[in-house]
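Hey Z.,

So I finally got round to the zinc ion thing we talked about over coffee. Here's the setup:
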Amino acid sequence: MKLYNTLTRQVEEFVPYDVNEVKMYTCGPTVYHYAHIGNLRTYIFEDILERTLNYIGYPVNRVMNITDVGHLSSDSDSGEDKMVKGAQREHKSVLEIAEFYTQAFLQDMDDLHIKRPKTICKATDYIDMYLKIIDVLMEKGYAYQSGGNVYFDVTKLDDYYALTNHKADDMVVGVREGVEEDSCKRNQADFALWFTKSKFEDQELKWDSKYGTGYPGWHIECSGISIANLGEYLDIHCGGVDNIFPHHTNEIAQSEAYLGHKWCNYWCHGEHLNDSTGKMSKSKGEFLTLSLLKEKGYNPLAYRLFCLESHYRKQLVFSYENLDRVASTYEKLVRKVQALQQDTTGELQMDLYQIYQRRFQEALEQDLNTANALTVLYDVLKEDKLNSVTKIALIENFETVLSLGLFKSKETVIDTELEAYIQEKIKERILAKQNKDYALADQIRQELLEQGIVLKDTRAGTLYEIEKR
Ligand code: AMP
Ligand code: ZN
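And the result:
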């Protein structure tokens, strides 16, 4: 298995510490808002990586965090706190919005067939671990207290910038851009491990510590959760490219200073999904969520296919035109596979099966070349020499990685008449609620429920699910 390693800037052979348990850590969402489909592209890439490792025989122990405290909106330590901002926006408590958006995120993962990591941890559950790391960093002289906060001194390390391809001076300028300098720091590249002197007076979540009542910096959370769950030696750490600096750079600094040895061997980063204006954002323009795509009638798995058609290390531009093209490919794929399922005559052609299975695996082993893996799928569907039984067996095998829901019942193909009917009922119900006719609104919900259609009121509007019977 070959993987591109950001740390060495090369494609390398993947060799885990222990072949019986690949230890993988993936940075999770900051639950102050819905994930946008760019964020979800990164989670799809990580899912493909985990499934590929499983496919070639490695059991994976994967951990993901849920950031419910301390993530600042700027990459510097002096930006605004995203969770506090989210709570203010919605006039709710930080814990309420964390809970709401965690559930929304898990729903997105399920809709996209992203396997849930074995362990998902909330940042607020590991405060003791962060403080334990901070104590050791203080003892060893890597951390210092200043102006009420605790900072990591990056000059104590020989190679703080190892993960980035930049010179130290460039990175420091990057950190400073548009951000007030924090006069408490010894060096501007230093980062906060523990805040007490916060400019967020309304910060709700605070914990007592010997450094004062406060809360953790963002970076310490991933080091703490990873080491607590996966131990001192990590095989793979993933995230989007924006995480390389400062987040992952700081994770390496504090983890290795704490442990006293190298921490993680492979650093894998997914490139961004951009919209036509450039970087995808939660604040400008149309906020592209999976719920929005669903509302517009797209099957989430068509978006999964959209992502798999390009390499995870290439930037991808989202447009509805491109998604429409992939959605139509997706529907054709589902129809073809379902048609194949009707014909189950013939014996498995083992020789041919092995040839195609090998080709599929080789594509994935080349740094997750999902586009080539999909080509093998299309070739299988086209190949006249393969009988239906062999085709089905191969596609079932490929589906353990691709997970495109190709074998699902026809419900996955959007039925336009049914869709129009449900949307009409949703409109009637909204009108009933506006007229304060709650009895009618409940009656509409009940009528749909009796037909197996479950309505869900979300911030993105009323969504529905069709129950499998
Ligand atoms: P956040 O919730 O902001 O912490 O981001 C969650 C994940 O999405 C991180 O791994 C980011 O690196 C990644 N990410 C952020 N923006 C994009 C984007 N436009 N395309 C792909 N991944 C992204
Ligand atoms: Zn992280």
